[in-house]
Amino acid sequence: MNGFSRRDMLRAGAVGSAVMASQALASPLNGTRMLPAEMDRDVFAAAIKELRSIVGNDWVFADAQSTVSYNKSFIPDPEGLYLPSGAVAPASVEEVQAILKVANKYKLPMWPVSTGKNMGYGMATPASNGQMVLDLKRMNRIIEVDPDLGTALVEPGVTYQDMHDYLEKHNLPFWLDVPTVGPIVSMLGNTLERGVGYTPYGDHFMFQCGMEVVLPDGSILKTGMGSVKNSTTWQAFKWGYGPYLDGLFTQSNFGIVTKLGMWLMPKPPVYKPFMVRHPDADDIGKITDTIRPFRMNNLIPNGVLIMGAAYQLAMFHRREEFWSEEGSIPDDVVKKAAAKNGLGMWNTYFALYGTDEIIAATEPIIRGAFEASGGEVLTEEDMGDSPWFHHHATLMRGGMSLEEIGIVRWRGNGGGMVAFAPVAPAKGEEPKAQTVLAKEIMGKYNFDYAPAYAVGGRELHHIIFLMFDKSDPEQEKRAAQCMEEMITRFGEKGWCAYRSSISTMDLVADQYGDTNRQVNARLKRTLDPNNIIAPGKQGIG
Ligand code: ADP
């Protein structure tokens, strides 16, 4: 980038557009709304006029007051570098096409969101100031659920709650797989971000089948079998013919996805959730080595969560109940508070699915292995009305729960939180070392280490939530610095994030190497020469 980082450019844009925005608006909220860098306010006004003619006045938000909800995010943004210029909410694919035409004409960048609830990573806010949020929540039809194949085709605004209600209403014998705040987020947005859940269908992109994408030039691509004349297999067969294109539209900015196919899990006759309690912080190595073979041979079929005690406490409690010092909460304090609540330092949630006979055959094998690792294997009967057990038992059957939102209240009232999610191979020594490093860095910045490990097949997503008080500018700045150091130092060891907050997309993209960035840039230039879809997303464009 010619010696300038994108951050430098964002800063320049922030200053320039703040001036323009304050010229344009005489509102007490001046400065919270940004125009794209280098965009003249008359040009912006002309674009807005055209957008209004497409979707109607009510669905274009271009003044400071009506865009407040789009500015809201939990991540640290001490310099105000990630604020939209407004939002536009189309109701159809045709309107999306017409909007992209205007975006190309005026070079007005569009940041697509489905429901915009990407909590740990920036909500609806864009990767640089002035992008217009392309809010797809009005496109919320469940187009089809095939009761024989257990497949669904949905629009962007369909939430997990919508689909849950649909399945109940039509008495369909399928389960969903939800991320932690499932009821309010979209199936499409979470899958495009390659999010995870906690049933056997936990890897959402793995269970995705077929997409409809509006490309930046307005043309429509249906992936997989979707473009075949009279196709009956769009949601049944993922791979189609020739290069597999769906991946290009996940964690990317090459198109607007307007329909997505998903597979639904057949509801099992019997479901049995478990929690395994381990007492010590460094048990994470043993836990990982115990789970790995069971995930590889699928005796444990679901997306397992290994929950750290501090994270568990933060869901239902506030920090000041246990610790009011400035420095990180010490392990012994966490351990004591966890024990009082029936929790260990690590609490591993897995489940068995099938028939009584199947579960009776596999449970003793898994129990034996966990007990040999020093864990106590507990069931619903043992855990009684533990809210933690209940929460995870709900997630592992794809149920609706919003309880994890509680973690934004852990520290102060300002609601600050950002996630760092480096990947580790499922070999005990590696997560053990990651935990030590994360604790060291977070300790240096006086934040609490509140982790979870989400176990895939052969790897773990180490989910580290940095919780801070966003109403405290000093803390917000410190949170941003801590995040940068964590990403950098983990990256030096080869541990990179699988997903990133909008504020650190370049930093992470760099860690994946020059060739990777160049290929993405070439694809971007070919598909989106005017760079109008989500510039900066995943460090592209
Ligand atoms: P959630 O379902 O968690 O609310 P979001 O709507 O916030 O998800 O979307 C998460 C991210 O995925 C967005 O920031 C955007 O980069 C991308 N995204 C969401 N919807 C689309 C879409 N329809 N087409 C292309 N990218 C999208």
In short:
This is FAD-binding oxidoreductase. With 541 residues, the protein is of the alpha+beta class.
CATH fold group of the largest domain: Vanillyl-alcohol Oxidase, Chain A, domain 3
Structural class: alpha+beta
Helix fraction bin: 25-40%
The average pLDDT is 94
CATH class call of the largest domain: Alpha Beta
CATH architecture of the largest domain: 3-Layer(aba) Sandwich
Principal-axes geometry comes out as globular
Uncertain residue segments = 15-31
Instruction: State the domain count.
Output: 3
Question: Biggest sheet, open or closed, and with what strands and sense?
Answer: 8 strands, antiparallel
CATH superfamily name of the largest domain?
Answer: FAD-linked oxidases, C-terminal domain
Rg, nearest Å: 23 Å
Question: What is the rounded distance between the termini?
Answer: 11 Å
List the helices and strands and how they pair.
Layout: H1 6-24, H2 41-55, E1 60-61, H3 68-71, E2 86-88, H4 93-106, E3 110-113, E4 132-135, E5 142-146, E6 151-154, H5 160-169, E7 174-175, H6 187-192, E8 208-214, E9 220-222, E10 256-263, E11 265-266, E12 270-278, H7 284-296, E13 304-308, H8 309-316, H9 331-340, E14 346-354, H10 356-372, E15 376-378, H11 380-383, H12 387-395, E16 416-420, E17 423-425, H13 429-444, E18 450-455, E19 459-468, H14 473-492, H15 505-511, H16 514-527
Parallel strand pairs: 2-4, 3-4
Antiparallel strand pairs: 1-2, 5-6, 6-10, 7-11, 8-9, 8-10, 12-14, 12-15, 13-14, 13-18, 16-19, 17-19, 18-19
Helix pairs in contact: 2-4, 8-9, 13-14
Bound molecules: adenosine-5'-diphosphate.
